[in-house]
Design goal:
The protein is of the alpha+beta class. The protein has a single domain, classed as Heat Shock Protein 90, CATH 3.30.565.10. A six-stranded antiparallel β-sheet has the order 1-2-3-4-6-5, with helices on one face. Strand 3 and strand 4 form a beta hairpin. Helix 1 packs antiparallel against helix 2 and helix 2 runs antiparallel to helix 4. The radius of gyration is 16 Å and the shape is globular. It starts with a strand and ends in a 9-residue tail after the last strand.
Length: 151
Amino acid sequence: MLMIAKKRSIAEKRFLGTLENVGEARRWADGYLAGCPVAADIELIVTELASNAVRHSRSGEDGGTFTVRLDTNIVRVEVTDLGSDSEPQLQPADLTTEIDLDSDPEEEFELAESGRGLHLVASLATQWGIHGDKTGHTVWAEITPTTPGTP
């Protein structure tokens, strides 16, 4: 844990940019969102966005970090990375691609996993977006609670 700040209904925490810390970010969000009717969806979004930050930006390099910010006023999650030469974007995902179990397992894992994370975020979120540049990107998502008036 590098930093945590909590004000009103907003919490922010920075994590070391490793895949192990993606799980830590999910557990932190789970603890913060206890009782929120859309907590499970937010946890999935945190997992996807943090994984993308670690795998596709400088956040995954030695000493890199990513930051998760939660706002329960509007049920919003933001993940900020350390940037890359390309912008995060919704990739066309071929969900019908067959996996060849006799080929290189690492290559097949990447193929099976690649391009689906932001599709999941888009399907769960009421709205989502990306801002930033090669020095850092923030991907955000908002979810409308199933019970009006409750975060």
